[in-house]
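Collaborator request, handled under Task 6.
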Amino acid sequence: MTLFKRLPRLRWKASEAQEEIIPPDVQTQCPELATDFKLLAEELMPHFSELDASGLRLQNEFRLEQVLLIFGAALATILGALHPSVGAVWIGITESVLAAALSAVAMRAKTTRVQQGYFTDRLKAEKHRTKPTLNTSPGSPRVPR
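Structure tokens returned to the collaborator:
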């Protein structure tokens, strides 16, 4: 289901497949740029892949924190509503422990600035992605018309 594809994973595993910035079929259409494409694959792609993987890992970590905070807060609210109506002491203790754990997660999220890190890494990766297209776009002085 599409809704659950975007949920964060508890154990992050980076993708093994490397994405090409310029698809191979486009590269074959411009054989005069073969040396540029080779340079792109050797010099730019390793940096792009590293930044892309780091950005995706941090994005997963950020989303996991947010999901934990949302569902944890909902559970704490439910426990808070049940506690006075049931009157069981263990519900109040569970709510207090859950609230303390959620406070720790929120404090960690604030101090580690994971969202800022993944924004930064994604921005750097996207800047690397646009570098070769600046020189190979139609109308560029390096591309024959």
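The cover message to the collaborator said: "Residues 76 and 95 are 6 Å apart (CA to CA). The chain is about 75% helix and 0% strand. Please let us know whether this matches your experimental observations."
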